[in-house]
Design brief:
The chain has about 80 residues and is mainly α. The protein has two domains: about 45 residues, no CATH class; about 30 residues, no CATH class. It contains five helices and no strands. The protein starts with 7 loop residues before the first helix and ends with a helix.
């Protein structure tokens, strides 16, 4: 579950889900089974949308940096 440290919001939700399972399910074996299934689902989650968004942002930044002076410096001008 090391990957959950990189995704704090999902990690917090996941730990809350595990706590709920521990409170609701009285059988210890069933708890372990459900916890392992949840862990597998989170580990196998598709984060491709997030990856695509980050790649798009990187392409936009690269295009701005290689463009004209106005393209490179439009953000600071908007903050004035």
């Amino acid at each position: 579950m090391l990957f959950l440290k990189n995704l704090p919001i999902i990690g917090n939700i996941f730990t809350k889900m595990i706590d709920v399972v521990a409170e609701v399910v009285p059988d210890k074996d069933l708890q372990l089974k459900i916890k392992s299934q949840l862990t597998e689902k989170i580990a196998a989650a598709d984060f491709s949308l997030l990856e695509k968004e980050m790649a798009s942002q990187a392409q936009t930044l690269a295009a701005e940096l290689t463009g004209s002076k106005i393209q490179r410096s439009w953000r600071p001008h908007l903050c004035i």
